[in-house]
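Pasting as-is:
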Amino acid sequence: VTVTLHASVQVFLGLWEDAPYFAVDLSHHEEHALPDLVNGASFEDLRQVGRLLAADEATILAYARGMTHWHRRQKYCSDCGSPTEARDSGHVQACTNADCGRSHFPRTDPAVIMLVTHVGADGVDRCLLGWSTRWDFPMYSTLAGFVEPGESLEEAVAREVLEESGIRATDVTYRGSQPWPFPASLMLGFRARGLNDDINVDPTEIREAKWFSRADLAQFGEFYGETDPNRPRLPRTDSISRRLINDWIDEGD
């Protein structure tokens, strides 16, 4: 397709069912300048349409999104400031300064995301969810944060939970992961147990955090389609946060 001629870099993503797949960044072009777009086609935010895609399609597009974002950000060498050029089918950005010659590779920023649980004095098992300051409506999700240099994943879980909620976490166990190329994160999911239940949130990041029972969560609405602006909502169904919550809910059946 000739729209690829408008792209400065073409990234080879690999073979799927013996067909080669490439990613090209056309975000800086107006749609009318791309004559080969199918009539009625338009560009959409992957975060909004990802839940509608088959898993294989979503994986390819997440890969493409992460690679094209990296190319937009890695136009100059971080060592000497010289321009870089794409090599190795778009998987390396090489410094064009012969005296430097450094190769730059795509980066991924690890972040931990965790469901903390606690059995209260009443014997009821509850999970800790927070309403982030990023959301205008009451969407309660698991706590999360980036891993600091020199920090283990387990230490990152305990630190983030303590900083955001005042809860001391222990018994940290890995539960799964999800790439999140917005722009370049890898979400590493964990379960942890809270040693205390008195919440003290960091108001710069969390509007409110609460302990919720499984019965409480049964009254929540969905991220998409909820018409009551005051009804608390669960995270989107295609997120690892929702997977962590659903796994915990299912354990109570």
